[in-house]
Amino acid sequence: MARTPRISGAPLEKLAGFARSTLGGLALPRVLRRDLGIDDLAALPEALRGDLPLDTRPHPGRPPRTRERTDLPLPEGPWSASAARLARAYERGDVTPREVTERALAEAKRLAGQKPSMGPMCDVDEAGALEAADASTQRWRERRPLGLLDGVPWVVKEQSAVKGLPRRAGSAYIPATPETRDSTPVARMRAQGVVTLGTTSMTELGMTPNGANAKRVMPRNPHDPTRNAGGSSTGTGVAVATGLVPFGLGCDGGGSIRIPAAINGVFGIKPTWGRVSRSGDIATGTVAHVGPLASSTVDLARSLEVMSGPDPADPQTFAAPPREAGSFLAALGGGVRGLVIGVPDSEWIDASEAVQRAGRAALAALEKEGAKLVPLKLELARHAQALGVVTIACECRSSVRDDWKRHGGEMSADLQVTFAALDAFGALEYLDVQRLRTGLRQELARAFREIDVLALPTTVTGAVPVSETDMRTGFLDTKVIDGLCRFNFLGNLTGLPALAAPVGVDGNGLPLSLQLVGDAWDEATLLAVGAHLERIGAASVRRPRVSFDLLP
Fold first, then answer.
1. Between helices 413-422 and 384-399, what is the axis angle to 10°?
2. Which of 109, 189, 485, 515 has the most CB atoms lying inside 10 A of its own CB?
3. With a threshold of 0.85, does the pTM exceed it?
């Protein structure tokens, strides 16, 4: 199918004006529907639909899995400074949290000064970070650290509240008013002594995965600065990939954790719906999840461990079953022997040859380690992106109804086009999509009666080329959107946990990623598989062209 070509710069600005006209409001939705497969949804058979969902709780395929405990060694970790390496250095007195924080802050400034910019930060809390680092330095000197994460720097996507900094979600129209309190995940990390450097840049309102935003100076891909860095958690992905921090916070409504993880060659996990509180995050609606990106499965598990848990400020977290403290970290030693991994060939054929080759090589390595690969047929999975686009777009458009009236002309041109096109979607279409979503949830629940993990590509290809104009003005490219989101909305629509693991590179040396989807509340199995891929060398975080080590 021929797609609409990429548009940016002056033509995009003109298109934004046309989009808000009566004629544009009629013409543009037709293009969106065609290019993203939305027109195909109405023709799907009635048998694939379920009832209207009454809640957003994930549907597990079976009761929680129990596996024989094994204690394989933890993976060695990445080229960059992990939390464990930093803790050992602090304990020996080789370096202090104050010195590491100063190095990180200086590197953030250096990255921002490069041409093109590689700076992942949006707002930096230098005074607050140094104050927290000084307190951590004192605790380490007195041999009373709060834990292995004490004094470790991290970053937070700019849609999650950080006390003292604005929370503008990639926009320019939202006032730069300092937040008066931390979001729940940030507060929980601070309680462990983690040093918050500041917030990271994102695409406007998280509504595009391409990593471009006319309202921000966005970083490029550290493996090749002529390529995009994905989104919408763009800055967090770049901060982790360059070695600026070992882990950071992202938010994922349609792949926005897993896409930048994949494109920048690091690990990322979208937890089960309700696993991590959204209190203090701008995320609303029924598909957005908060979770970490990291340069190793160990730090992914450690950060997820801290930020997870029930939160009275977010009732969605009450559905999570009781979990033993430390279980995520303990799961890393579980290996894969006996695990059943479902591989839907009908999904894999839509990935590029390079992605298929790298992903299937990783799966073959798991099979040699004792996992069982089984074919799997999924009827609705290939429509997940179209279902997801309608869901997230309509929910976001509704949540900014007043902003659109008051500040629509201040939004990025690409966002204006998107929101204008959304006005053509009616209530009946949104509700029909939700019935199909129920069918998808039921389909996945049936699959997980027989499998432990679902294996998918994370993206169709690696990072794509971008021009100076694309990055300065933003751009619209439905082929890029499809290539980034094609396999990701399935996890958001079902609420199931999904992990992205870097499993190779393409012919240009750009990272490629394998996506692992688990049953509801079974992040432990995903972490076990991801850690084993890392342990046997089938997944690894490669040092990019633009990089920095916190430990000299």
1. 100
2. 515
3. yes
